[in-house]
Automatic annotation (TrEMBL):
GO terms for molecular function: thioredoxin peroxidase activity. GO terms for cellular component: cytoplasm. The active site is at C56 (cysteine sulfenic acid (-soh) intermediate). It comes from the Bacteria. GO terms for biological process: cell redox homeostasis; cellular response to oxidative stress; hydrogen peroxide catabolic process. This is Glutathione-dependent peroxiredoxin. Thiol-specific peroxidase that catalyzes the reduction of hydrogen peroxide and organic hydroperoxides to water and alcohols, respectively. Plays a role in cell protection against oxidative stress by detoxifying peroxides. Its EC number is 1.11.1.27. It comes from Parapusillimonas granuli. Residues 3-168 form the Thioredoxin domain. Keywords: Antioxidant, Oxidoreductase, Peroxidase, Redox-active center. Belongs to the peroxiredoxin family. Prx5 subfamily.
Length: 168
C-alpha cells in the first residue's frame, strides 16, 4: 500500500555522499535516519527512477535547482532528491549537475525506504531492477501534506512548479 497525504513517513536509512567533512559528517558516504532528518522540518522531496537517466537529468532535478530560491522563500528547510542508487552515484550526479548543496542527493541503495513508502516499481524487464516511482511530496515534521505520483513513464505532476503551487 502506498503512502498517502496525512501519513507519517516511515523511518529508514538514506545515504548521502558528503563532499566537505564537518564535525558531524565525515567525507564520503554517510547514513542518516529519516525520522531524525524530518523532525521539525518542512521538506520538498522528489524521487525518481535513477541518477543520470534522461528525464531525471534533463528535467526533474534541474527544475528543483532552478526554483531553489522560490522554495526557500516559501519556508522550505531542505529539498531532497531520493533515488534507488548508491551514495557514490548520487554524489557524482550531484557534482555533475552542479547541485552545490541546494538539494540533498539521498541514496536508497537497496530500496528499503522506497518500499516502505509503497512507491517502488520493478523495472527488471528494462535491466534496472527495483526502483522508485517518480513523485514529489511535501513533508512537514514527518507528515506527508502533498503527494504527486506519476503514472508509468510520465513527467507531469512531480515537477518543481507543481509542488511550489501546492505549498501554502
Amino acid at each position: 500500500m502506498s503512502i498517502k497525504i496525512g501519513d507519517r513517513v516511515p523511518d529508514g536509512t538514506l545515504g548521502e555522499f558528503i563532499e566537505t567533512p564537518t564535525e558531524g559528517c565525515a567525507l564520503g558516504p554517510n547514513n542518516f535516519q529519516v525520522a531524525d532528518m524530518v523532525k521539525g522540518k518542512k521538506i520538498a522531496l522528489f524521487a525518481l527512477p535513477g541518477a543520470f537517466t534522461p528525464t531525471c537529468s534533463a528535467k526533474h532535478l534541474p527544475g528543483y535547482l532552478e526554483h531553489y530560491d522560490q522554495f526557500m522563500s516559501k519556508g522550505i528547510d531542505e529539498i531532497w532528491c531520493v533515488s534507488v542508487n548508491d551514495p557514490f552515484v548520487m554524489g557524482a550526479w550531484g557534482r555533475d549537475c552542479q547541485v552545490n548543496g541546494r538539494v540533498r542527493m539521498l541514496a536508497d541503495g537497496s530500496a528499503g525506504w522506497t518500499r516502505a513508502m509503497g512507491l517502488d516499481q520493478d523495472l527488471s524487464a528494462r535491466g534496472m531492477g527495483v526502483r522508485s516511482k517518480r513523485y514529489s511530496a511535501l513533508i512537514e515534521d514527518g507528515v506527508v501534506t502533498q503527494l504527486n505520483v506519476e503514472e508509468g513513464g510520465a513527467f507531469e505532476v512531480s515537477d518543481a512548479a507543481t509542488l511550489l503551487k501546492q505549498i501554502g
